[in-house]
Amino acid sequence: MEDDYVEVRKSWWERNWKWFVPTGCVSLLLIFIVFIASIFFGVTSMMKDSDAYKGAMNYKKISW
Fold first, then answer.
1. Which letter, b or e, does each residue of 18-53 get, where b requires 16 or more Cβ atoms within 10 Å of its Cβ?
2. What number of CA atoms fall less than 13 Å from residue 61's CA on the CB side?
3. What is the pTM of this model?
4. What residues have CB less than 8 Å from 53, skipping those under 6 apart?
5. Tell me: the pLDDT tens digits for 5-59?
6. How far is the C-alpha of 33 from the C-alpha of 24, rounded, in Å?
7. Can you tell me the distance from the alpha carbon of 53 to that of 58, in angstroms, rounded to the nearest whole number?
8. Element of type H or E holding 53
9. CA distances from 64 to 39, 53, 58 (A)
10. According to the 3-state scheme, what is the secondary structure of 2-52?
11. 6, 14, 38, 56: least CB-packed within 10 angstroms?
């Protein structure tokens, strides 16, 4: 009778969801933060390279 025992193996998701879900959420959050930071730094670098910004900074330096 002991030979008739069949071990039921759980699926990958049932075995690993406890670490996969938090890791996935943190990964998505980090990707979102990097995306927002890249937009912010991209826009500020474009503004600093513009002629209007350079002219305003030159005007500020002269007036001081």
1. eeeeeeeeeeeeeeeeeeeeeeeeeeeeeeeeeeee
2. 6
3. 0.68
4. 47
5. 788 899 999 999 999 999 999 999 999 999 999 999 999 999 999 999 999 999 9
6. 14
7. 9
8. helix 51-63
9. 32, 17, 10
10. HHHCCCCCCCHHHHHHHHHHHHHHHHHHHHHHHHHHHHHHHHHHHHHCCHH
11. 6
Are the CB atoms for 53 and 47 separated by under 8 Å?
Answer: yes
Residue type, 28: L
Which residue type occupies 45? S
- As a residue count, the chain comes to 64
